[in-house]
Amino acid sequence: MSRVLISGQLVHASKFQRSKVGTVNEKRRSSMFRRLLDTSLVWGERIKQRRELQELANSPELLMDIGISRYEVLREGSKRFWQE
User: Is the pTM of this model over 0.70?
Assistant: First the structure.
């Protein structure tokens, strides 16, 4: 049997239970990790889309087809990945 040292006394690990506070902290950490992952994915997609958009700046025919100006493409393409 494994034992855990608590306040200078050895206690059987089977008697040691997680507190509800620990469970809440784990859920909070999981939620924070999920938000961080989601944000990273959004930022990565913005980087990709803005690079592709900047490539369109040199093609007036394509810009006319999608109905935006070269200025709009360059303005949107120059935004930082964290900017919407």
Answer: no
